[in-house]
Amino acid sequence: MPLPPASRTRRYAVLSAAAAALLALAGCTPATSPPAGTTATSGAAGSVMPSSHVHGLAVSGESSQVLLATHDGLFDVTTVPARKIGETNDLMGFTPGPSDGVFYASGHPGPGSDLPNPMGLIKSSDGGKTWEQLSRQGESDFHALAATKSGIVAFDGILRTSPDGKVWDTVAANFAPAVLAGHPDSNTVLATTPEGIQRSTDGGTTWQPLANGPVIQFAAFAHPAEAVGVEPDGTVHYSADAGETWTKKGRIDAEVMAIASIKGEDGRPWVWAATPDGVVVSTDGGMTFRPITAD
Hints:
Helix content: under 10%
Number of strands: 25
Shape: globular
Largest sheet: 5 strands, antiparallel
Number of domains: 1
């Protein structure tokens, strides 16, 4: 599905981490899928799902790719069958960087990989084909990652911030985020928890709980000032002020594993959601959803 022209200024939008990230930091296992170049099976309504373990969803405003970061590696689901990108690694944490084709990830190495376990923070500058080791190899399995204007925010059981992905500061926080959502052109970060949203406006250094907001499980930025969120029951919310206030929209009638959002040409956000049966998309600001179509 082609992306609207206005979305190209955003490059990639993503939500990294799956729902289980909240309390399952030690519960993941190494990837076991076939090597790069293999394909995946078709899902419902012409959609495709390479793996039942989806940890991140990214949408490119430049290439129109819809990418899934999974237990079995990175997949492009804009083709049928889905196309594997790069080697097989368990991408437990995943987020795009400030330019198209730049990704940060974490998790566990797959079969034949020479990466340490856990992988620490790794970076790709070629769309996920190859990865370089940045820091905390053998130490951190970041299940939640977000890129901001000032750097990286990550959670491996401890909330951390880094200006470059190499040197880290520990953040005093009394919550464990299931998901971290940020935008590379902003220092506002949202953290989802069972008690509600935590919000930072300084790149993850300090946090405040959002009073009277919805309990959102997944969140993503469509624009520095616009965010979308999904409750555990699939109810979709929209924020026009970077997560300070929320308006209820539609509902996703399936289990949601990850979401991403980009601002559409009509001014409303487009929203993608990974479900067990495939990826669905909304082009009306989260009111209605339909399966994506692939080439």
